[in-house]
Amino acid sequence: MPLSRRGFLTAAAGTGATLLGGAASAAPPRAADEFDVLRQRWRSLVLGAGFDAAAEPFRGRLAGLGADAADLRRSMEPAAGSLWPDLVYADPEPDTDAESVTRSAAVTGSLQRLVTMAHAWAQPGTGLTGDAALLTAATTGLDHLHTQVYRAGQARYGNWWHWQIGAPRALFDLCAILGDRLPAGLVTGLVAAVGHFVPDSAVATYGGTSTGANRVDLCRSIAFTGVVGRDAARLALARDALSPVFPHVTTGDGFYRDGSFIQHGWVPYTGTYGNELLGGLAVLFALLAGSDWAVTDPNRRLFLDSVERSYAPVLFNGLMMDGVSGRGISRGAAPGDPARARDDDHVRGHAVIANIALLAQGAPAAEAARWKGMVKGWAARDAYAPLLSDPRLGVAALARCREILDDPAVVAAAEPTGHRLFAAMDRAVHRRPGWAAMVSMSSARIAFYEHGNGENLRGWHTGAGMLYWWGADSGNGQYSDAFWPTVDPYRLPGVTVSRKALADAAGGAWGADKPNAVWVGGTTDGEFAAVGQDTRGLHSTLTARKSWFLLDDAVICLGGGVACSDGTAVESVYDNRNLGASGTHALTVDGTAQPVAHPWSATFPAPRWAHLAGFGGYVFLDGRAVVFRREERTGRWRDINTGGSTTAITRRYLTLYRHHGTDPVSGGYAYLVMPGATAAATAARAGAPWATVLANGPDRQGIAVPSLGVTAVNFFAAGSAGGVTVSAPASVLVRERGDGTAVVCVADPRRSATTIDVTWARAVASVVSRDPTVTVTGTGASLALRVNAAGSAGATHRLVVRL
User: Fold this and answer.
1) Spatial separation of the C-alpha atoms in residues 307 and 303, rounded to whole Å
2) Residue 64 dihedral angles phi and psi, to the nearest 5°
3) Which of 318, 424, 450, 605 is the least crowded, having the fewest Cβ atoms under 10 Å away?
4) Which residue spans within 374-527 are E strands per DSSP?
5) Cα separation of 495 and 492, whole Å?
6) DSSP state of 789
7) Residue 264 among the catalytic residues
8) Ramachandran quadrant class, 522 (left: phi over 0; alpha: psi -120 to 50; beta: rest)
9) Rounded to an integer, what is the distance from CA 132 to the centroid of its chain?
10) 681-689 long-range contacts, CB within 8 A, separation 24+
11) Which residues pair with 767 in a beta bridge?
């Protein structure tokens, strides 16, 4: 239960560790009221507590912080329109969109530099701890920015985010850290400025830029004016305006029942905007706990459930899967400091992990124990980019994570196995012992890709069936090691695309362009899955039907009906492995070692199998020609992000693809990927009749794997295959089990059928269990059932029978 007001004040003033989940705060110098306590609590959340400044990773991080702050102090040159010469924030004349956005970003950037200086002044071990000159510089700089640009009455320009979210966030940190060292008049003016840019009306309705993660951030801005401005009404507003974020949604931004998270209407965004929402709620829950403004909405339970339903499934070995990070994949390295400023899947994963660690501090005991175990497990397995060495994590976040890692009572959780089909965001995540995979698709509901603010200029085909996969101890840097600026954007692993040249930022900004296709999704029994996509090309005539059958130790990939009239080549990319800066990974094709020199390419007319050392194996199921290609590719982050580094980067790639020719009419492919497999295991799989392709055309695609008891078919139209008949488009997975039972899974990826009649030509004795949406209309020599698919949003309908 929430503490009483008196209990809140007493606990916060006397035992800050209790309310801060283990982070102690210094007692206020005078009798505390609620606003004083909240400010002190925020200071502790920002600065961290309980860490040894003389021990690593803190010693090095704090010394670096001090060095950065010293450099910033030396380079600060207050002038009309700027605080630092390289960050000009004066509103440009004439006002061009691009320049205006850059100038608004300079406001936030300048404030963030002042935050760095404030941290160096307040934190121990920086070499500038308590330095009077640094404090004066930070205070002078803040007053300069307030007087010139971030003040009440200032007209907004550029990107709204900097005025309503970015700048207030930095100001909250500054006011919490510097506290009474700031002139009272300056603090009053800053509170008025935030109130000007983020009025009550910013959260009056749930829509536009006030949804999902943005809504949480706006509430955080309003909370700043409540705490620092000592305004109870604004704090109540910040708390109450969070409520629309919690319930599950069926369209637009937010969390869906299947665990999907969408931002900007149609972009899967668990890894970036989703993390902003997670971090924002974690700090607000911690800040307001036990006070008169504690977040007590019962629907917050739905958000707490998202840790295991939405975030954990897309984290693997400490990395956040790129398929749910939108345009964030293009950020990589910024100019001037590419090593320390890098942004990749591990960095994004670490940020989510740190936010889960913070949320765990105030969670119910059972959940807190599970989440801490997950944090410890992710950190333990991230050998590629150790969490505690992440230069993007602040001292406070490191302290929270270190506390968990050092706690012997916390048992590291293993990576889970199973399949999660996120139908609402056209993503599928498959986990098996030793590896994980993600399929990234697009539809009339989900954008091809998102670009905006000059970011992700060549992400055109990331939703064309891209197949990501990682091993437990291999390939964890596959997409981290400068993949996005150096990979051929027309040859992303798993995609089928036209080689038609596309302009940078082709298609509408913010994910406006979506394919005119509705059959996207699949069905799963929770362990295996059948996933498919009616694929359409971006600014292209390309069409194709693609399927992935995600099984025990392999992913079977089928493609049919590949057609295009662009007048350009069309390819299906089986894989494109990033070999690093100097990789010479051995390639074996049908038992024969191939050259390791770069460049090299060869077309094998009918290979049976191939193995790439350090990654896994491939088995080719259709006797078609496959092209193998080694090459070095050079790119720059600036090529895909206008704010990126111009430093040239070179990486080596090994690409396998099917060349369908120019303007194919009915192309296809069939192969399987075995992540982590040895050459011997791959050869054995190719030499045995393990999988049968039941159909592979534009109307249906299916496989049977007798050793697994699996028959799975994606029906893009009514029809029959492998003893399964459907009356309407559907995805069907049948799995016969060793106990004499079978599970039948059916879904309507089109989301348009009212009912689907399914017949399975297999003798069935009885029904063991069924979902309420499934009606059995016949057993005996065969099974007949009817699925009520109306309103199911692509979800799986399940039936268990005794054979």
Assistant:
1) 7
2) -65, -40
3) 605
4) 418-422, 427-432, 435-440, 466-471, 496-498, 520-524
5) 6
6) -
7) yes
8) left
9) 42
10) 681/617, 682/609, 682/610, 682/611, 682/616, 682/617, 682/618, 682/619, 683/591, 683/609, 683/611, 685/554, 685/609, 685/617, 685/619, 686/608, 686/609, 686/619, 686/620, 687/608
11) 801
Q: Given the structure tokens 């705490």, which residue do they identify?
A: 227
Confidence of residue 373 (pLDDT cuts 50, 70, 90): very high
Residue the block writes with tokens 């965001």: 425
| Omega of the bond leading into 772 within 30 degrees of 0 (cis) | no
Give the gyration radius of the chain's Cα atoms. Answer: 28
Residue 3, pLDDT above cutoff 50: no
According to DSSP, residue 764 is labeled B
> Is-contact 544 562, C-beta < 8 A?
yes
Name the amino acid, one letter, at 502: L
In the annotation, is 273 catalytic? yes
HEC string of 670-708?
Answer: EEEEEECCCHHHHHHHHHCCCCEEEEECCCEEEEEEHHH
Residue 362: enclosing H or E segment and its boundaries?
Answer: none
Q: Is 443 in contact with 520 (CB distance < 8 Å)?
A: yes
Pairing state between β 319-320 and 315-316: antiparallel
Q: Is 763 helix (H, G, I), strand (E, B) or coil?
A: coil
User: Is residue 423 within 8 Å of residue 258, measured between CB atoms?
Assistant: yes
Round to whole Å and give the CA distance between 664 and 652: 30
pTM (whole model) above 0.85 = yes
CA 767 to chain centre: 40
What count of Cα atoms within 13 Å lies in the side-chain half-sphere of residue 802?
5
746, with CB counted inside 10 A (0-12, 13-18, 19+), is: buried
Structural tokens at position 704: 């049977």
Cis peptide before 28 (omega within 30 of 0): no
Q: How distant is the alpha carbon of residue 687 from its chain centre?
A: 39
Cα(573)–Cα(596) distance, integer angstroms: 20
Choice among 144, 146, 264, 660 that is catalytic: 264
- d(CA 219, CA 532) in angstroms, rounded, equals 39
Which DSSP string do the residues of 54-68 spell out, in sequence order? TSTTHHHHHHHHHHH
242 and 288 Cβ atoms separated by less than 8 Å? no
Residue 101: what pLDDT? Answer: 86
Q: How far is CA 119 from CA 23, 26, 122, 230, 566, in A?
A: 17, 16, 5, 24, 56
Q: How far apart are CA 54 and CA 41, in angstroms?
A: 24
Structure tokens of 547?
A: 């399927």
67 sits in the region (left: phi over 0; alpha: psi -120 to 50; else beta) called alpha
**pLDDT band of 91, cuts 50, 70, 90:** confident
Which of 146, 157, 159, 214 is flagged as catalytic?
214
Q: Angle 212-228/184-197 helices, nearest 10 degrees?
A: 150
SS3 711: strand
**Dihedrals phi, psi of 258, to nearest 5 degrees:** -85, 5
Closest CA to 306 of 265, 275, 264, 328: 275
118 Cβ partners below 8 Å, 6+ apart? 138, 173, 174, 177, 178
**Active-site residue, selected from the candidate residues 150, 273, 618, 671:** 273
The answer to whether the CB of 459 falls within 8 A of the CB of 540 is no
pLDDT tens digits, 556-614: 999 999 999 999 999 999 999 999 999 999 999 999 999 999 999 999 999 999 999 99
Q: What is the mean pLDDT of the chain?
A: 93
How far apart CA 559 and CA 546 sit, in angstroms, is 4
Q: Give yes or no for a cis peptide into 391 (omega within 30° of 0).
A: no
249/99: higher pLDDT: 249
Residue with tokens 């929770």: 526
* Contacts of residue 607, Cβ cutoff 8 Å, sequence gap at least 6: 589, 590, 620, 626
Give CA–CA dist 648/486, Å, rounded.
Answer: 9
The percent helix, strand, coil of the chain (3-state, each to 5) is 35, 25, 40
The model's pLDDT over 434-448, given as tens digits with 9 standing for 90+, comes to 999 999 999 999 999
